[in-house]
Amino acid sequence: MKDFSVNQNDQSKYDVIIIGAGPAGLECARQLRDSKLSVLLVEKNKTIGPKICAGGLTNLTSGFGIPNALTRSFPLQNLFINDRKYEITLVHPLKTITRLEFGQYQLEKIVDSKNITILINTVVSEIKDDRVITLDNKTFKYKYLVGADGANSIVRKHLKLRSNFYNGLYYDIPKVTDDLVWLMDPKLLKTGYIWMFPHKHYTNIGVYYNPVLVSAKSAKEVLEKFIVDRDMIFSPKDIKGAQLNYNYEGYKFNNIYLAGEAAGLVSRATGEGISFALISGKEIAKKILNPEHKMTELRKIIKIKHRQERMLKVLDSFPIFHNIFLRISAILLKYKWFQIYIGT
Ligand SMILES: Cc1cc2nc3c(=O)[nH]c(=O)nc-3n(C[C@H](O)[C@H](O)[C@H](O)COP(=O)(O)OP(=O)(O)OC[C@H]3O[C@@H](n4cnc5c(N)ncnc54)[C@H](O)[C@@H]3O)c2cc1C
How far is residue 2 from each of residues 25, 89, 108, 145, measured CA to CA in Å? Predict the structure, then answer.
């Protein structure tokens, strides 16, 4: 890993303060790099990158120049609906990346920029209308604040916005595999699913579910059975899990912006959030630099998100049609127009 020392100008006033160095915050900082604005990026962790995440990248991330050397690529998707298998070749393959490597790659793009100060190992504990206060009692004033602090965002709480959550649980199995698999079983997981994402040195196998409809206990049971059925071994203590906030209510609140999951920009249908974080981080930086910026890319992903949510609403209302709907979707997924329509 790169030996990264923080550039700290001992300053207490910034044009832009970004809270959170995930994909959204790092991309926002990258767009503000070499601008006239002074930027402070605050991250609570010591290392930038690691995050509870399966690391799947769709084509929506293709504009961000992520090097192929960091990813594995899977044109073929093995989709199981109950016991029936569908093989789907995606026009734009799904890729996998480890979050540590991705975060370090993003960090490299900003680490030597003169106008950006990066503060790691620092928790923002309080937000005021013109300043943020850290756990170690430092105060930093801002003109613009960007909340890029993820699913349990303190900035979102300051704005008194409600969050709605799906959950994800997974194991990283230390075995290299080659098949990317999705399994849907509406009887057990309702609108959730199991995924198996091969990475370079391990396989990430997890379950995504709506905690209102499925208990953590049964989601975990389905996940563990899936792993055992594939003759893989897991250690129960290594399970990891986190929430995903999908409730989007806007990105701009006077001089405070929300990006990525802090804004609820996650696909409720699939849990995809990396692309949404990158796009919103980029668009918000452009808006700060030019208030006339039209936010076309952000509008496009919000449209995809709402389209997927309308489909889920139908499924939630008519669970009896769930299986039929999934089977029809699996057949339609062979066509490029449908892949684009649902945003893969
Ligand atoms: C189990 C699981 C699997 C997932 N799999 C995928 C997938 O395969 N593909 C995909 O596209 N998406 C996936 N997601 C979603 C994806 O991880 C998120 O949507 C994405 O990371 C959001 O990026 P972000 O920059 O908005 O927030 P984050 O990546 O969460 O980054 C927020 C950053 O803010 C920091 N922070 C938080 N609070 C503070 C504070 N008070 N002070 C300072 N710093 C703070 C955090 O430490 C973190 O570094 C998954 C999520 C889960 C839970």
Answer: 19, 36, 9, 28
Q: 226: helix, coil or strand?
A: helix
Residue nearest to atom 21 of ligand 1 (CA): 274
pLDDT in tens, 270-287: 999 999 999 999 999 999
Instruction: Judge whether residue 3 has pLDDT over 60.
Output: no
3-state helix, strand, coil in the chain (%, to 5): 35, 25, 40
Encode pLDDT of 225-241 as tens digits.
Answer: 999 999 999 999 999 99
User: What pLDDT score does 202 carry?
Assistant: 98
Task: Tell me the CATH architecture of domain 13-50+99-163+245-319.
Answer: 3-Layer(bba) Sandwich (3.50)
pLDDT of residue 10: 52
Q: How far is the CA of 260 from the centre of ligand 1 (A)?
A: 8
Residue ranges of the chain that CATH labels 3.30.9.10: 56-97+166-242
Ligand 1 within 6 A of 154 CB? yes
The CATH architecture to which 56-97+166-242 belongs is: 2-Layer Sandwich (3.30)
